[in-house]
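thought: fold this chain, then report.
action: predict
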Amino acid sequence: MTGYRDGYDVRKWQASGQRPRRSWVRWALAGSTIAALVAPWISGASNHPPIFLAALPVFFVSWSPFARESWATERGRAIYDEFEYAALLRATARAFAAYIGLVTLLIGWMAVAPDLGWPVPTQRMHWIGWLTALLAIGTTLPATFAEFMVPMPDMEDEML
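observation:
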């Protein structure tokens, strides 16, 4: 074998249902992250943002094998090979950088929005909507990035 698959055992993802990978989980996490970003801007009943939509990534992250295992501990690291562990480290670093950029962007928005007449949160439920969205995105972004950075097993590698 050549390329990134050298020494990479894809059979462990299918072995007796252990840590199954599902291709729809990565897209559900990405879509729910975008929905969580949009949710605080939507006004529902009584001018409240939809809190469930802001917390949607937390629901989908439960299907990701990268969120269920404690990979940062010694015992958790033992279940991943070196390729997956390196991809998890890169995914976590990129997720934190993206999250810091998002929070910086929102703080910048809050700093200039009143002077420019842009909308800002004014009610308690608006702030709760933003905080729920930021908390959900911050806790699920490393698993979301890992879902995209660790390759799915190829169709020809799948066991029948």
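thought: worth noting. Residues 82-116 form the longest helix (35 residues).
final: tokens above.
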